[in-house]
Amino acid sequence: MTLTTEPEPYRLTATEALANFRSGALTVEQYARSLLSRIAARDPVVKAWAYLSPNLVLAEAKRLDSIPVDQRGPLHGVAVAVKDIIYTRDMPTQFNSPLYENDAPKVDAASITMLRLAGALILGKTTTTEFAATSQGPPTTNPHDPSRTPGGSSSGSGAAVADFQAPLALGTQTGGSLIRPASFNGVYALKPTWNAVSREGQKVYALIFDTLGWYARSIDDLRLLADVFNLQDDDDDDGDGGDNPRSGKEDGFSIQGAKFGLCKTMVWSHAGPGTVSAMEKAASLLREHGATVEEFDLPEHTADFPAWYDTLLDAEGRVAFLPAHRLDKTRLADHLVGHVENRRGSSKRDQVRAFDSIAAARPVVDAILARYDAVVVPSVPDEAPLGLGYTGDHIFNSLWTAMHTPVVNVPGFQGQNGMPVGVSLVAPRYNDLRLLAVGKKVGEVFQAEGGWKPQD
Predict the structure, then answer these.
(1) CA distance 23 to 222
(2) Please, how many CA atoms are within 13 Å of residue 58, restricted to the half-sphere of its CB?
(3) Which residues, 6+ apart, have CB-to-CB distance to 344 below 8 Å?
(4) Which stretches within 24-100 are classed as H helix?
(5) What is the pLDDT of residue 6?
(6) 111, 236, 240, 354: which could form a disulfide with 308 (CB 3.0–4.6 Å)?
(7) Which residues have a Cβ under 8 Å from the Cβ of 356 and sit 6 or more positions away?
């Protein structure tokens, strides 16, 4: 039997792979072998994996093939890469920390349990910065230019999806660890509404910011995992907003006649030429396709947000890394030692003020975002920096992480060196499905007309 699509199996999106499994054109084992061949060919350059066992992958693929068709889950056979701060019972979870080298707790995180029950093929563990909490990169390279970083802290997850080593990958975001690698690698990513997906069984950095999300090469694939994790909007399960002006149902939303906001945010001075150009081009394309685009500034009283965020991140990190500090601070990144030892000198009063200020800003920001089908914001300062030592700045992401809003990175633009630059779409809290539906239509335009195309 022949494949229903032309690409080699490793090139299939998750949605395409599912269609081939269901038609009988492809077995999970054939698919797994194709992915493993791709990884073997590319891993010496990209270095996206912290742990991968081909024997384990193939054994699981054969088991999945043996499941009767009427008992298969909604993700049957689809490969998912997992950031190495998320527990997997049959693989080590090492946090890229010397304190946890070869550590292998025999337990699955809640997210992994849900993926396994849905029939996913857990492919392996992807690289991260230390505890997903520093900007010091692992050895992973950007698949579009190995002299550049793939971003972080979800370094391996973003690179693996971009390089066709996995169609889906889990990542996490405390500052910009999902959206920044998505932009640098030219793929889609969803940072859902905060706490919409269980974080049980993953390393904690800042509970009030930490968010589990995922990467894909299409919006349809992002939606597959959104359904597995039971993301729901307030109106209904499929994103149909009825009379809601932000209705994002896929067969009803059109860019023609839609209303978009554009917000450069209070840190726009950090934008480089790639992001300046991407934001201008995004607004121009939306207008050309019949949308209204309205630029706005956030209220003046939010101007101190970056300082609020830094204060809270430091306070949360002080709690999260105290055990490792007491265990052996000489084997802990200096940045994390600084959290524990309060080098910023923040008081509890500072912490409370920052916490309350951010909490008070959330409903205000939600109300502003609710005026639009989606709001276009920067994903990154610019294209991926040269070198692997520094994974880039989260300056444009931390605002939306702290606001707890859903964010989708949409690829399609490029910087001065030909590297991908994305822009983000944001929406009010618990409007994840509508945002994905809007992102699908926007992504079709940006990828076709934005100017950046991946080269194989």
Answers:
(1) 22
(2) 8
(3) 310, 311, 314, 338
(4) 28-46, 54-65
(5) 64
(6) 354
(7) none
Structure tokens at 160: 């693996």
Q: Which residue has the tokens 């959330």?
A: 362
Predicted pLDDT of residue 126? 98
Domains of the chain: 9-304+349-449 (3.90.1300.10)
Instruction: Give, in degrees to the nearest 5, the angle at Cα 436 between 303 and 95.
Output: 70
Q: From CA 383, how far away is CA 274, in angstroms rounded?
A: 6
One-letter amino acid at 409 equals: N
Which residue, chain included where needed, has tokens 């490792």? 324
Omega prior to 379 cis, within 30 of 0: no
Contacts of 230 (CB under 8 A, 6+ apart): none
pLDDT band of 261, cuts 50, 70, 90: very high
**Position 296, amino acid:** F
**Which of 89, 81, 122 lies closest to 105 in space, CA to CA?**
89
CA distance 70 to 68: 6
Number of helices and strands (H, E) in the chain? 14, 11
Beta bridge partners of residue 119, listed in sequence order: none
Beta bridge pairs of residue 125: 51, 82
Q: Where are the beta strands (DSSP E) in 372-452?
A: 374-378, 407-414, 420-426
| pTM, rounded to two decimals | 0.95
The span from the CA of 183 to the CA of 223, in Å, is: 19
- Catalytic residue set: 83, 153, 177
* Cα radius of gyration rounded to whole Å, the chain: 21
